[in-house]
Amino acid sequence: MKIDASFVIITYALSIPAFTYLYLKKKNSADSITVCRLILVMGIILRILYICYTDINTRQHDVESFFGNAGGHSGYILYLLENKHLPDFDPRQVWQFYHPPLNHAICAFFLFIIENFGVEISQQTLELLQILPMIYSSLFCITAYKALKLFGIKGRGLCYSTAFVTFHPTLIILSGSINNDMLSALFCMGAVFFTVKWCSNKSVIDIVLTALCIGFGMCTKLTVGLLAPAVGCVFLYVFLKDRREYRKTIPQFLVFGIICVPVGLFFPLRNYFKFGVPLNYVPKLPLDSSQHIEKTFTERILNFFPFQFASPFVQWQADGAAYNEFNPIVALWKTSAFDENTFFTNCISFQAVCVILLAAVIILSVYSAVTLIISIKGTLKTEHKILITVLSITLLANYLIFCKNYPHVCTQNMRYCVPLIFTQSALIGSYGNNTAVRKVTAVFCGCSVFMFFALQFYTN
Hints:
Blueprint: H1 5-13, H2 15-26, H3 32-53, H4 72-83, H5 102-116, H6 123-127, H7 131-150, H8 155-166, H9 169-174, H10 181-201, H11 204-218, H12 227-241, H13 246-275, H14 297-302, H15 328-338, H16 348-373, H17 382-405, H18 420-431, H19 435-454
């Protein structure tokens, strides 16, 4: 836990957007665009606060140690920093080296610049790496806000949907995580934004940027390729709707493929031809792992017995729990709010806030799922509905298949389908005209802000 004078200053800075809003509201000049910008500013300040009190060894995934360990994302970063080239061995030999290298290369280059200023690599220096995911997370929120506007979401709906993204716990926790999750999520969000923008003007620049986002995203994490079905369906719909413009759109689709495919697949193809690594390779944990789930997938997916909600946090037998978290949907709700962590173990009243936050997550999730099914009656354009529907189904289907094929607690995590946060926000903003949905969204955001503000005083 890192606490110094800077976090005190940042803590007080959090109140500035709130007081600004109250002042503007009193002057009757708090329009939705201004409110959204204040929300984004507050979200960025909250992320800066979070990385100020969260060290690089806290709430990470598969990072391992930068000192004394050659594996994990930390080892990958240091390998690129020291050797200045991609691994020249079968990446399956070292934990996490099978990932595409873009995020790790950016981190290595960041440390390289620091070294060239004469600063020795130390624990304090490595803490600066958290600046990168903090920027990615902030850009994700800004891009989501711009995409929501392109969706035609206005007024209070825009404010609530922007707040939902900005204060979503997953995006705040990932703002301090130095693995490749946050950068890949940013590229996903960029691809969604430029796809929606392309639908309006069919600009070659927008389709090139969409291709680059997916391509570079797959250079960060291969699962970014899951955007392809949604983007492809949108392209097909627009092509059929405006088929008289085929002389314009077909060359653009060719440009998209020429850019996206080689950029996105260069690393897995390299490893396949050089080392025989399967294109979709993901290492499996051993069956005797403490987090292995023994139940069949049918038992897991259909079991919503109340005992699973006795605690709002993910259950691990290795940590003394009575069972390993097994239901992928329940785990998705829990990790959406708290990742794989347990907060405020010594404060029951603060844990009550976590229970309320989880309840809000579940209510909004169920509401979004129902809304997605009946969204044909909504006000979104057809291409936007196609994008949201296909993307949501693709991500959820991939997540469930992943949980089935890799039956471990750690595979049941919201970080594997972060773009769902945007699709959910779009559904909240477009169809959440009733007061109840807005109240639940406000409770969700309020509990999240409180939790991350309070965490600075706790070490767990």
